[in-house]
Design brief:
The complex is a heterodimer of chains A (about 450) and B (about 280).
Chain A lengths: L1 E8 L5 H7 L6 H9 L4 E8 L3 E8 L4 H16 L3 H4 L4 E4 H12 L11 H16 L4 H20 L9 H9 L10 E5 L3 H12 L4 E6 L2 H11 L2 E4 L3 H4 L5 E4 L10 H11 L4 E5 L16 E5 H39 L3 H25 L5 H31 L5 H15 L9 H8 L1
Parallel strand pairs in A: 5-6, 5-8, 6-7, 8-9, 9-10
Antiparallel strand pairs in A: 1-3, 1-4, 2-3
Helix pairs in contact in A: 2-6, 5-7, 5-13, 6-7, 7-13, 8-9, 8-13, 13-15, 14-15, 14-17, 15-16
Chain B lengths: L1 H25 L16 H28 L7 H23 L2 H20 L14 H36 L5 H4 L3 H30 L8 H6 L1 H21 L6 H16 L12
The chains are: A alpha/beta (about 450), B mainly alpha (about 280).
Chain lengths: ~450, ~280
């Protein structure tokens, strides 16, 4: 049985290759169904985002290369492409490498922008669609669930997912240190350009509800206001709107500054100390630097925001080392669990056999010592149970250790399993239930 | 001896709690996930709260034990009144902490609490007033209301200090470290206002009861002497400052950095009550 991953990402392939291999969300069920038609594929999950297309699969083949071959063939057939069009961009991973890869992806360590956690939602979605299509079994379910848990651990224990990833993020980040609830903050946009639109998008996503747009071309202001559920005002009316706004995004194409200290001073007085956050993302600048001297006014231009983004990026690089350690640790745990699963049927059988012997002997004893009280019987039961557990403990522990030891000792592992079966007279054909196996292995 | 031992225990607990809240500001460790507006408290500050409440409980027992052993009101000695003041600050922050989760405020509020309690312990051997003037519900409520308001003022001042600090960090564009651990300006402003909104009526009540008491026939001085006392004048000036803050916030909607300076000034004047010589408020 092989656990493999075949895929492409922004690290290995340009966008034109990635888009040819990508699978839209509504096509994922059909892609999974097509995969399961290949002989030997027992479980499969397709993770398709704008930066990656990856297939995780459990395949019953003699070697991993057979399994990778099968997945590459599926990609070629499903997307109607020739193998040589994309094969050189593929990466192929097995076992712990594939496990580690998924955990790194879910934790944002493999993202285009380090620490970007949008991918976590896509990992969750890939798992959900695979569950709905019934292409995922106990192993990949456990792996994806574990990857989501690891991602949460990485977020909680490191600063990798923290802070600003873009100018828009930086603006939201700073605003959240001024205003306690962005849903109550009012945003005034001066200049309905692309940059201000991006920043507004982030603010709206962070809960901003009150939006006013002013633009020299009123139609453009109306278009943006309609897009985000705001209100458009005439450009000349913006000084009035400044009295009630909490956040101002200035991004006009004006060749000179439109907000100067003299203009703002009376407005600031009318605001009675209410903080005003000015975001100037225009080049050349829309807001005079001396505005910063006004009390309760916080002015950030594009360079300031860039430096916030850069500081955060530097911090994330240092945090990435800690995050890598966590993912490696968790990947090793998962692989150990995966390997010990092989021992589960034998362990179950061993336990059942010992329990059977115990019950038989207790029945014999009951016949001979019939007059014992309920309490005395309980004591005997407890003693025999404890004895059985002590006898079974060492062999079970040894089996788990041997199976978790590593792939080099594969031959030895199988001998030990066989030896256990022979010593305790266990039937090789019967095994515990799936639920028992999972519980045991955990 | 027992009351002092318990007070010492409470002091240790407050220092430990304050240190944990303070550590929260400086230890570089897990922080709020991106887009999460409210800062997530670190594990260290989680231990701060139980320590704080244990300290407040121990101190409550200490005050009770002192009253039982001396058969006096806690306000009959400088140790007792300072101890109650420390307890009021700790309790005011404790209530705020359960409602709003502001560990950064705890770092300052509990430092003030510990300092006040330490000063109380230094005066533990001071004599206890035996005058019957301090007996009676009117006097007890008068002092208790004033000390409770001071507890809330301490919390509002802690918020004001953090507001000024956060305002400065924003102006200087220093976005890492402390900046990330401090609450948003608006939260600090609202919390300070919330504390003053409760404290001002309490102070008003305390002062009104005090004025009523000056008309008592059993007092050694006529009302005029009590009202001309620098201690009383300072208390009235404190009340005026906080009333100014409260009304300008409530009626005029004023806020911002200048009001925070007013809060700090108000607390400094309030604390100066313990330093200003009094012609009437000595009962030994």
């Amino acid at each position: 049985m092989q656990f493999v991953l075949t895929g492409i990402s922004h690290h290995t392939a340009p966008i034109d290759i990635r888009e040819r291999l990508s699978v839209a969300e509504h096509h994922l069920p059909s892609a999974l169904t097509a995969l399961l038609e290949y002989p030997g594929i027992q479980e499969a999950v397709v993770l398709s985002t704008c930066n990656r297309v990856e297939i995780y699969a459990i395949i019953d083949t003699p070697t991993p290369s057979h399994a990778h071959d099968m997945l590459t063939e599926h990609l070629a057939n499903y997307h109607h492409l020739a193998r040589h069009d994309f094969a050189s961009h593929l990466y192929q991973k097995n076992g712990i490498d594939a496990t580690l890869h998924l955990m790194r992806v879910a934790s944002g360590l493999d993202s285009l922008v380090l620490g970007e956690m949008q991918v976590l939602g896509q990992v969750r979605q890939a798992m959900r669609i695979a569950q709905e299509t019934e292409s995922i079994g106990s192993i990949l379910s456990a792996l994806f669930q574990q990857a989501i848990t690891v991602s949460r651990r990485v977020q909680n224990e490191t600063g990798i997912g923290r802070g600003a990833f873009s100018i828009g993020h930086a603006a939201v980040d700073l605003a959240s240190h001024i205003f306690s609830d962005l849903s109550e903050a009012s945003v005034l946009v001066l200049g309905a350009g692309k940059m201000s639109e991006l920043t507004v998008r982030h603010l709206i996503a962070s809960g901003v509800k009150f939006l006013i747009v002013a633009n020299r071309t009123h139609e453009k202001a109306e278009r943006m206001a309609n897009q985000f559920g705001g209100r458009a005002i005439h450009y000349d009316a913006f000084p009035e709107a400044l009295t009630s706004a909490d956040i101002v995004i200035a991004s006009t194409a004006a060749p000179h500054t439109i907000l100067r200290k003299e203009l703002l001073q009376p407005i600031v007085r009318k605001r009675r100390g209410k903080p005003l956050f000015l975001i100037d993302i225009a080049v050349p600048r829309d807001i005079d630097a001396d505005v910063e001297e006004l009390e309760n006014v916080f002015l950030y231009n594009i360079d300031d925001l860039q430096s916030v983004v850069q500081e955060e990026a530097n911090l994330r690089v240092t945090e990435a080392h800690r995050a890598e350690q966590i993912t490696l640790e968790e990947a090793e745990k998962f692989v150990t669990w995966y390997k010990t699963r092989e021992a589960v049927p034998v362990i179950s059988q061993l336990k059942n056999r010992l329990e059977q012997i115990r019950q038989e002997d207790l029945a014999l004893l009951k016949g001979r010592l019939g007059n014992l009280s309920e309490r005395e019987w309980q004591a005997i039961e407890m003693a025999t149970l404890a004895m059985m557990k002590r006898v079974a403990r060492e062999p079970i522990l040894r089996l788990k250790q041997e199976l978790g030891a590593g792939q080099n000792e594969e031959r030895e592992k199988y001998d030990l399993l066989e030896a256990t079966r022979e010593i305790f007279g266990l039937n090789a054909n019967t095994s515990g239930t799936q639920a028992e196996e999972n519980t045991e292995a955990r | 001896m027992l009351p002092f031992m318990l007070t010492l225990c409470a002091l240790v607990l407050y220092i430990a709690s304050g240190a944990l809240y303070g550590a929260n500001l400086f230890i570089e460790a897990p922080t709020a996930p991106k887009n999460q507006v409210k800062p997530t408290p670190l594990p260290v500050s989680r231990f701060g709260r139980p320590l704080l409440f244990t300290g407040a409980f121990v101190q409550f027992v200490a005050i009770g034990a002192w009253c039982v052993t001396t058969h006096k009101s806690p306000f009959a000695s400088s140790f007792g009144s300072l101890s109650v003041l420390a307890w009021a600050i700790a309790l005011a922050f404790g209530i705020l902490e359960t409602r709003r989760r502001l560990p950064a405020v705890g770092a300052i509020a509990l430092a003030v609490t510990s300092l006040v309690l330490f000063l109380a312990l230094l005066q533990a051997r001071n004599p206890v007033a035996k005058t019957p003037l301090l007996i009676g519900q009117l006097v007890s409520i008068h002092v208790l209301a004033i000390l409770a308001s001071f507890g809330l003022f301490a919390v509002s001042t802690s918020c004001a200090v953090l507001y000024i600090l956060q305002n400065r960090l924003l102006k200087q564009r220093r976005h890492n470290g402390l900046f990330r651990k401090l609450p948003p300006l608006e939260t600090l402003d609202r919390t300070a206002y919330f504390a003053v909104a409760y404290a001002t009526p309490l102070l008003t009540l305390g002062l009104v009861l005090g004025i009523i008491r000056t008309f008592g026939t059993d007092l050694p001085h006529p009302p005029g002497v009590w009202l001309r006392d620098p201690h009383t004048i300072t208390a009235l000036f404190t009340w005026l400052l906080y009333l100014c803050y409260f009304l300008s916030r409530l009626l005029l909607g004023l806020r911002g950095v200048r009001l925070q300076y007013l809060l700090i000034l108000g607390f400094l004047v309030a604390i100066s009550l313990y330093l200003i010589p009094t012609t009437t408020h000595h009962f030994l």
